[in-house]
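Session log. Operator J.P. requested a structure for one protein chain; no other inputs attached. Running the standard single-chain path with token output.
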Amino acid sequence: MDSLEKNQACSDECPVKKTAELIEGKWTTLVIRELLPHKKRYSEIQRALTGISPKVLTTRLRFLEKKGVITRTVYATVPPTTEYELTNMGEKLKEVLDAMAEFGKNSNNRINID
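Structure written below.
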């Protein structure tokens, strides 16, 4: 992998750095994971992500929308219904999340998160 060569400077053009900045933080990757199977409403995402505050969820969703990872569709109902769905770029992150899941399942990779 050319992007992982030793002694290569980690500039703003580094593909690993770009990806890390896009999916930084545990909530961002978990929001993406929740949207992988299909589009969901805000309340569905919030229920699935136990412990996330409404402010953090809204911030993460806005960030991902701004970066082109998800789309937000608002329906003119009372009250308004909002659905979130991965874009084609967002769906490409499935491979990254699959690799993270595989790493997390591997018993040889005991990670202490204290």
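Operator note: The chain has one domain: 13-105.
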